[in-house]
Amino acid sequence: QKQLVESGGGLVQPGGSLRLSCAASGFTLVDYAIGWFRQAPGKELEGVSCISDSGSMTNYADSVKGRFTISRDNAKNTMYLQMNSLKPEDTAVYYCAAGAGYGTCWSPSLSQYEYDYWGQGTQVTVSS
Q1: Cβ of 75: how many Cβ atoms within 10 Å?
Q2: 5 Cα distance to chain centroid
Q3: Each residue of 39-68: pLDDT tens digit?
Q4: Which of 10, 35, 84, 104 is buried most deeply by CB count within 10 Å?
Q5: Which of 104 and 18 is assigned the larger pLDDT?
Q6: What letters, b where the CB count within 10 A reaches 16 and e where it falls short, cover 3-27?
């Protein structure tokens, strides 16, 4: 059974940092582009960042550029999202996703429809 499990969410003060992790089981992430998405209360799902299967291409939402960094450790079958300089507007449930389709993450559009497998989500709350 193919699964993605996120961890690392929590409550942090504005300006703080968190690192989200997403571990895959039942399949090998090396063959997949990976992405992070988030959904704030009352809002639609928003693409945050992605990295291509080769790791040569990354994309970020304008709202997180310069603050968030996506990475992958294929040896550990795990992806990460390092989030720095967090703002209250970053508060959301964060989801990781994996997509095997050709060209996934080549476009900066960060479309959720490119991804086949999703984690259950982890809450990130930025508040003083």
Answers
A1: 7
A2: 12
A3: 999 999 999 999 999 888 999 999 999 999
A4: 35
A5: 18
A6: ebebebbeebeeeeebebbbbbeeb
